[in-house]
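USER: Study each token:
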Amino acid sequence: MNVCQFMSHNRAEIFEATLQHLWLVGASILLAALIRIPLGILITRRPILNKPILGSANIIQTIPSLALFGFLLPAPWIGERADRLSILALTLYALLPLIRNTYTGIKGVDRAVVEAGRGMGMTDKQLLWQVELPLALGVIIAGVRVAAVISVGLATIAAAIGAGGLGEYIFRGLAMVNNQVILAGAIPAALLAIGADVSLGWLEKRLNPH
């Protein structure tokens, strides 16, 4: 039985694992965006917080994924459910690209445009929502794109703690020394990463100011 036949025979299970994978990635990216985009905005307004926030995000990014899962396992409530733990870990890994790109996007807005807005009597809040964020949206989406692709890959490791997803096939295949089972998880995960990269790349280009 080749890989295509194996995947066709187990398509229902693979589809369910793909949905679990999408849930882990989607929930973590949404949570990261809700928390970390405001942080990116904050450090553009409070430069003194720049180094502590970006430094913390950089440190988290250097922690190996399995080690981070291990650190979070003893946490109350979170460690009791593998999916909660995985979503938290993936959210932490998404911090750096989202914070950095939000900061870079807003700081990259032409200062002449901002000063023109001020000259028209716009408040800081109006400048942020009507000028800076719309012009920075393409760069922010680029951060979401990077975070999504990273999360798709890291979510496969979540299977090691029982969170499900396509990583189950990869770990099962490694234990069985069976390339067909490994590829049954690796191929859909790679396609998800490519799909996220292409679709968010298209959105990024559409939102970049001309």
Observations:
- The first helix runs from residue 3 to 9.
